[in-house]
Amino acid sequence: MSKNKKKVLIIGNGFDLNLGRKTSYKNFYESNFCPKDYLAPLVYYLNNKWDDNLEAVKWYDFENELEKYCLTIHKNGDKIQDIYQLADLELFKTINQSKDKVTILSSFVQINKNRLQQLINDGLISIVHNNNRLDYLELSNTDLLLPAAERDKIAFNLIKSGLIEYFSCVQNEEIDNNSIAAKVFKEFIHPKDESSVIYSFNYTHTERILSILSSTERVHFVHGNCNDKNIIIGTKDGDIGQTYEYIQKSFDPNYNPPSMVYDLLSANDITIFGHSLGTNDSQYFKPFFERQSSFTSPEKKNITIFTKDTTSEIEIKRSLQKMTNWNLSALYGLNNLKIIKTDEQSTDSEIIKEYLKRIHYTPPRVISYH
Question: Where would I find the beta strands (DSSP E) of the chain?
């Protein structure tokens, strides 16, 4: 009886995008599920980071900016530049204490007229019209009375819950079952192929792909999924201080990633589809790529990386350089490493056909004796 070699498929956001799912950072940010209007310094920071180039933003860019934001605050002694309070906290407190005392004709309003008008223009204060009495001022959100760090934590949780709701909707939409991603997934999800294992860094489920409803049992979700209402977002471990330590993935109470590293090290054929191999997930990949680029214990493996285009190919090679300790040439020399750009291939191209043939499941041949 022949034995199939162990295969590992790792999928990232580029896999969902290749399926036709709208799961980019831009898609989420432009949806109503993104809390981009919440009055927290973190949200203001993210809003102004890519206001003119959202199309190019990857999810690892989002995670990297979370880390930069926290590191900057930590280096400044946990001082947060809060544009929503500054010298306005007393104004907010006065408005929030009693609506009757802060009518638009009150002396308080007249004294602070210019600043209050600016806050009204910025949407932080609103005028409530009342037919029975004088119009009065009201805070747009009483969270403005909270310290900036508390509002940042609320914002982070709003982003998390917004992602769950957004991706829950997206995963139910139609996908392209003729895409390269779907073809690759089909080969790994064969119900009798016990030699293959799938790890997903996505929050979406795989139930709709090729209508294989039992496929979810074969997929290990590294950072949770929408169906369980449990996803893990954030940064890698680092010295970012205690105020924002919750933003690290490992501090999430549900953090319990599967043992992907062991499967990578023991597999013969590894496919990475649509994952950037960025810094924030490098702990899952670095031990594997370090070993595969080492001349001390060479063990040749098939490593296929699917990415979108030349730009993303260069980004992946930069990540591989770091994870191989600047020895990418050894990774190529010791393995059968190929990077396939999906924008340049079709499902019936020779490169794709050759790849699919290699990973195709072949039932064990049973030799009978008479």
Answer: 7-11, 125-128, 136-139, 196-200, 219-221, 224-225, 230-231, 269-273, 302-307, 336-341
